[in-house]
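Need tokens for this chain, all 607 residues.
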Amino acid sequence: MPKSSDPIVQCLEYASDARSFELLCSDILAGTVYPGIEPIGGTGDGGRDAIYHDYANDITTVCAFSLRQEWKQKLLEDCRRVKSLNHKCDRFLFATSMQPTPDQRDQAVKTVREQFGWPLELYSRERLASAIRGNLEHLLELYPAIFRESNFRLAGGRQLDTSRRDILLVDHVDCDQGFAHWIARCLRLFGYDVWCRGIDATSGEAADTTIRELLDSRTRHHLPVFSKESAKCPEFRGRVEQSAGTDRRLLPLRMENVNLTDFSPRVCKLDPVPFEDHRAIGIRTLLAKLQEWNAPKDHEVARQRLDGLRLPGPKDFIQNEQELLASNVFPITTVPRLIHEWRIVGKLNSVRIQSARQLWPFVKSGNNMFSFIQPSDAFQGAVILKKIKATEWQKSAPGYYDGKDARDILTELLRRTLEFAFFRAGLLWCPERELIYFSPKKFSGKRVSVKLPSGASTTRAVCGEKHLWRPNQKGEDYNWQLAPSCRCFGGFQNSWEFRTRVFIRVTYRDDRPIESNRIITFRRHAASGWHQDKFRDLNLLFMQHAAAGESEIVVGEGAQRVVVSTQPRTFVCPIGIDEEALPKGANKFAKLKERTDNELNESEAHE
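Here are the structure tokens for all 607 residues:
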């Protein structure tokens, strides 16, 4: 069959994440014909990935989803499973990432009716894609494991090739980040789809370009934060003027009294929402204005389950007291002015390159190497280099570094420098998964201390052993190790920062990495029960461990030092959030799912 030119169809055709595909199919059905569908896929589902109960007509539809190429064999297996366990089933729905021919579809419908007595509704790859193209394009952003970014035109993690304008874009300069993030969090609590720089990713993108593209194609309302500093920023003023010409598009937020003489008359005549005196009054005024303008709510927040499970509402977790918030953003306080250049004498394959990174932080481009600091003696003994010169990266011409611009080479070099600090602190490199991780031989059975922004201290495990239990099957023992991931970003006004993320490396007991098609199951099991405070502590732990107990990570000497603060960017919100209340809805669903699985397991054992 010829390949489709439709990127949605292509992504479904090459999808490999079974669990994401199950959830995607459930969301497609929930957004079309079965708004109250109940996803129950996973271990012990008894052939049922989801169930829909039509209580008015007493009809139960059992749904099964599959990525297998032998889709008809999987269909019959699931039907037999449901039949053997005596599950109530009046209709059977099967979704597949394959594309059956019309004859194959008709034969499948006939076979299911003759053997099991159920009408079959078959969702093929093209039918799923058509449903997404209808009113469900937001799902493309929610399932990156299926819909790869390379197949779509994105900005800031949002799809641009769509007619939907549903985003509230909170725009700000660096010094107003705390206020902007507070506004964005408040609006998200009330169900709005908000994009805000610093919360949403702009990986590898110029922030100003990303914001302008979102304003052009996805933004319903532009919420710029007016302050004395933002009024001085030409990029910020340009974005405000870009939005000012559209009716009911621009809704400024006034954080402090500011002179708007640098803006055009059409901006000056607007009435910003005041926040300079009373933030509570300001947020109520903003919410009333958005309601008056019929700003759409976020798809996930608006959708509620028929079984009474819902996402927490504001009253469930808002506290009327200040809260200190810590991000996973760590500022780079010192960046060297010079980048040194060396020419490689001889050959250096990929294996030797990765081994060399543990001895010296560098960027390789062509036959040249770039670094802030001189190579170590151990490195020079393994690789022969010839010094060329040192250049000021701020004054270099575009494409100077073997075709790379200074900003690109600097971003990569800063990341390599932090990775070198992790190696220096005893972490190891996994060539199979291409990540840095805590060695079980060094950290097994140990807990690493971490100091919180509040001043309190705690400890966290960075590796361990676990057992994955499976119903009616032999369980599996495995090891897990934390793997810090970092990205370097260059913000406005020439500021630089690292953003860290928590990954988990999972291996068999003999330290062999688990196969890629099974990793998600083990990672999910290893991180079960982890909530926001756990991930906050781990991000702090990564940086503090690399600093060997100091307040800063320092690589290099003198003017060529790279210095990174281990204190994350923090800000104080006037209204706090009860972190313990956030997982209540998730815990409630988990208990219900556990009870359902136990009932299924007991039924299987009885059979």
